[in-house]
Amino acid sequence: MIATTSLVATGSGFDISALLAGDITVIGQILQIIWIDLVLSGDNAVVIALACRSLPDRRQRRAGIILGAGVAILLRIVFAGVVTQLLAIPYLKLIGGVLLLWIAVKLLIGEDEDDPNITAHDRLWKAVMTIAIADALMSLDNVIAVAAVAKGSIALIAFGVALSIPLIIWGSTLVLALIGRFPAVIWLGAALLGWISGELIASEGTLQTYLAALSNMLTLSVGTLHVLAGLAGVAITLLLGWLFIRLKKRQPA
Questions:
Q1: Which of 10, 56, 67, 248 is packed most tightly, with the most Cβ within 10 A?
Q2: pLDDT at 214
Q3: Which domain holds residue 176?
Q4: How many domains does the chain divide into?
């Protein structure tokens, strides 16, 4: 993360004439940003789809997807301006990882669709609020990656943000359609969020000294410990989700 921050700070700007002239460096930056958005917009699409699946009709689900995508894009714009300051906040990723894990469990459990006390309007804004919190926790890595490649260029950062808009909307629509046909996708989506939460916790800067010591003690690489943290996040999410769903089914109607 330190190397990434230095990349952001040592910006070289962006010249449109360089792109028109076929500058291989600029073209390479654009291709990298496209790849980053393709890879890192998927988790935002999954959380939007999971949060919107309990909305009562197609119109509400469509509104939830559009509002959720709007929130995700807005957060990326805000984060792009304060990325280096955010990286300096201690325990940010640790707290964020724990919150994201709980959100993954809640999305797996789902809403009680038969509850008469929850209106369609309430469901929509509750879904958008869930999306906002989850996106706030997940969008930082996307912004860091894009800002590192852009090297301080506002134009390239804006390009990365703009490109993610259709990717998130299309991706969440696709995942929502898959959930309708294959309910197991809900568990796969929750598992993905659990993995991200585990990796987010493992990447917390204040924990790196302990991870290095644990790596030496277990003769495992730090990268392997990150993978194990991701797997632990998946296991905890699915186990808690399964337990809460069982408890929910046992409650009297």
A1: 67
A2: 92
A3: 2-250
A4: 1
